[in-house]
Amino acid sequence: KILASVVPENLVSQIKLDIHRQFPNHLIFANLNGTGQRALFNVLKAYCSMRPETGYCQAHAPIASAMLIHMPEEEAFWTFLSICDQYMQNYFNPDLIRVKIELKLFMSLLKKYRPEISKHLAIHTVEPIYFATDWFMCLLTRNLPWATVLRILDMFFFEGIKVIFRTALAILDLLLGARQSREKLNSMDSIMNALRRLPSEITTEEILIPRVCSYLACKQFVVLE
Comparing C-alpha atoms, which of 114, 91, 115 is closest to residue 103? Predict the structure, then answer.
């Protein structure tokens, strides 16, 4: 019944444009109009039908795709709906007001917890909106190796969006925490290139996840959180 509902044609067209871009190297999404792509279309169209006030956002597609890799279509839809309604409420509103607030909070956490990194970004006019919007809205599904994404999602379902804050801080800590790293990445272009293509040596689950978990024991971070 949900799939039979009418969805505005502009949203349907946008979904069709985006579905082939999601995990194109993964078996279930590799074939044009294959089973995976059809399932992704159905999940996203059904969401538009259930939540017409939100409609479709490009950040929906990678999250829904991640769910489809691990569960059947109907379960993926209800899980995706729960993520949007409970874990990421108001994230996908057209004004992105909650995302903007989260990014300001993230920058305040960075300034408090890693002031040397915050200062380095400020000197080179690198704002969190330039790189972290995608991290938060897509739950880092497009930025990390799949094994690491799975670990992040496990923690996300248990703790919510605060895990993305911790992961973002951990990434910046590993990327720019050392003085030598900041001396190497000493321009807006070099910093942004590194943030857009995160080095593999800092994104493996063996390296990144322990750093993410280290913030759990930090009283300062817990208070700010």
Answer: 91
Percent over 90 (pLDDT), the chain: 84
pTM passes above 0.85: yes
- Residue 177's pLDDT is 96
Q: How far apart are CA 145 and CA 142, in angstroms?
A: 8
